[in-house]
């Protein structure tokens, strides 16, 4: 039997990264095309399909590719369609059945999912969720993305759009305005953007409190600034992480009441804040968790390389 | 091929009801034993197993029973064990592997689950969730129970205890004290008990507001009293349902963000309040639902007979 490989495709806002990988998650070869430079779904699919065919030929892997996995914004796993992705010009106003289009060009089976689900599946194939049938993956980036695995299956819902935990409302009165048009969504607090908002709010509401963050005046404060300030022992920065960790820990208790996962896996920039975030998060969980679930769910930080995780996750869908 | 039947066992706080049923959900014969009158798991399992064998013999169904399904408090579907059920004397302090014990006595395969999961599976086999792969069943009784089906599977979690949506915290500050020891849990608001609590709170905090509920002085007010008052057009009773429906509708929006179900199915006494509860619930959902899910999830009232639903649900597990 020949060794088998898969192709992973991560469709990002700027670039689409394509890679070939083996069952151990070793990326053999990779290339990219610009996501934005196509005006129609047809022209994009054609460029992507030809690039995949080239990659396979150059790697000498013809006949050994098991399939293509795609992680994309607004990807519907039930249908293989990208459904109106706000930030992709060729999919902004119309739905693009990219999985079927790529199968036509490459002759390979193709599985497509949103990027958060792909990330979760990547953790199950190659990361710290190996062997787990019940876990939730939370990506703390600009927003908060999530992929849920229950009973060994991705939870995709009847319409393919399950797992929007960033839009669970954690503050029901006077919550922060969210990009979705509502208020109090988890991602307005527990995300890189949320941390920066908390920093601005606290700096403004406490003019008397000293903080190294006040030295940043020429540009907006970022979550990285807060992290560096926390490393220097800045009390306000520590308080910002404390506030963020508590809100996330509290929300996680509700997620556990839903699917009772073996682990919550955190990924993305903010997950690197380590104990600044994890300590208050775990303390709040310990306090708020329903007795049934006490001490049963691990909080883990993804060990996958940030640059490779998206493409590994996409590829994992194809096995 | 012979027609097949199953045995459904509903372990209630007072009685254990046992019934034989066919694939259409017609209950052929039923009997019961008292749940409380046994001091050990062994003596209970022995009585139950013998009763099941009797029922099969009397119905002339030997060789035609596909299996036994059990719905029980604290039932763990992963293991077939009743794990410390507070209200069952023979399972209060020790775990009882009832599924295995019954298989030994009856020679039949046996599936055991908590009552809320059994109810959900009953809706899928016999009720309004027929043909659905993604739905959430919410039982509005003394508390709030829930059974979640995602991708055609019951969500049971890594430990068998998923689906405690009654203990999602909907009021994070100054919430009502819950039986679980925490505050603000959904079931302290959206349940028969919750409605009665809301009635008491409003009657006390608004001494000037007239209501027919004030005529009830010799005993505690129940949710049924509030329902009857609402039927008479009592403004305070209508406000109580409005408050309850809004809280439940708001919580349901978060549940949808988790598993994007095709329908939410309401069951139990409070579900019979009909539009008094459903109207504010749906209005709040319409207002609060994330745009992705707008208009996609039906709110349905279970059409199963209250007296038969538990046993049908239990039996459904056995198919």
Q: Could you walk me through the main structural features you see in this protein, from its secondary elements to its overall organization?
A:
The structure is a homodimer of 319-residue chains. By secondary structure, chain A is α/β, with parallel strands linked by helices. In chain A, 35% of the residues lie in helices and 20% in strands. Chain A contains eight helices and twelve strands. Chain A has helices at 41-59, 98-106, 115-126, 192-205, 223-231, 235-259, 275-288, 306-316, and strands at 5-11, 15-21, 27-34, 65-72, 75-76, 81-82, 110-114, 135-140, 144-150, 153-154, 263-267, 298-301. In chain A, the strands form three sheets. The first copy, chain A, has a five-stranded mixed sheet, with helices on both faces. A five-stranded mixed sheet of chain A has the order 10-9-8-11-12, with helices on one face. In chain A, a hairpin with a 3-residue loop joins strand 1 (5-11) and strand 2 (15-21). The first copy, chain A, is globular and about 65 Å long. Chain A starts with a strand and ends with a helix. In chain A, 53% of the residues are buried. The interface between A and B is large, with 44 and 44 residues.
Q: Can I get a quick summary?
A:
With 319 residues, chain A is of the alpha/beta class. Helix content of chain A is 35%, strand content 20%.
**N-end to C-end Cα span of chain A:** 16 Å
Q: Cα-atom Rg of chain A, whole angstroms?
A: 21 Å
Oligomer: homodimer
Average of pLDDT of chain A: 95
Order of helices and strands of chain A: EEEHEEEHEHEEEHHHEHEH
């Amino acid at each position: 039997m020949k060794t088998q490989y898969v192709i992973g495709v991560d469709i990002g806002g700027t670039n689409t990264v394509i890679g070939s990988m083996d069952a151990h998650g070793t990326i053999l070869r990779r290339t990219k095309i610009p996501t934005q430079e196509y005006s129609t779904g047809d022209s994009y699919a054609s460029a992507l399909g030809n690039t995949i065919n080239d990659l396979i030929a150059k790697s000498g892997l013809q006949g050994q590719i098991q399939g293509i996995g795609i992680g994309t914004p607004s990807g519907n796993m039930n249908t293989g369609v990208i459904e109106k992705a706000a930030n992709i010009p060729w999919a902004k106003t119309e739905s693009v059945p990219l999985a079927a289009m790529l199968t036509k060009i490459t002759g390979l089976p193709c599985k497509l999912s949103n990027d958060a689900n792909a990330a979760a599946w990547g953790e199950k194939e190659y990361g710290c969720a190996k062997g787990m049938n019940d876990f939730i993956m939370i990506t703390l980036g600009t927003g908060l993305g999530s992929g849920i695995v229950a009973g060994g299956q991705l939870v995709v819902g009847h319409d393919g759009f399950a797992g929007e935990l960033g839009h669970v409302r954690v503050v029901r009165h006077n919550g922060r305005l969210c990009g979705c048009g509502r208020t109090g969504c988890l991602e307005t607090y527990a995300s890189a953007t949320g941390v920066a908002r908390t920093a601005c709010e606290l700096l403004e509401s406490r003019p008397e409190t000293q903080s190294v963050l006040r030295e940043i005046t020429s540009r907006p404060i970022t979550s990285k600034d807060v992290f560096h300030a926390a490393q220097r022992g800045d009390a306000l920065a520590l308080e910002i992480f404390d506030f963020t960790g508590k809100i996330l820990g509290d929300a996680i208790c509700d997620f556990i009441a839903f699917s009772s996962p073996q682990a919550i896996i955190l990924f993305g920039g903010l997950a690197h804040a380590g104990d600044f975030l994890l300590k208050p998060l775990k303390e709040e969980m310990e306090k708020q968790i329903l007795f049934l679930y006490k001490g049963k769910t691990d909080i883990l930080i993804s060990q996958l390389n940030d640059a490779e995780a998206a493409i590994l996750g996409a590829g994992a869908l194809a096995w």
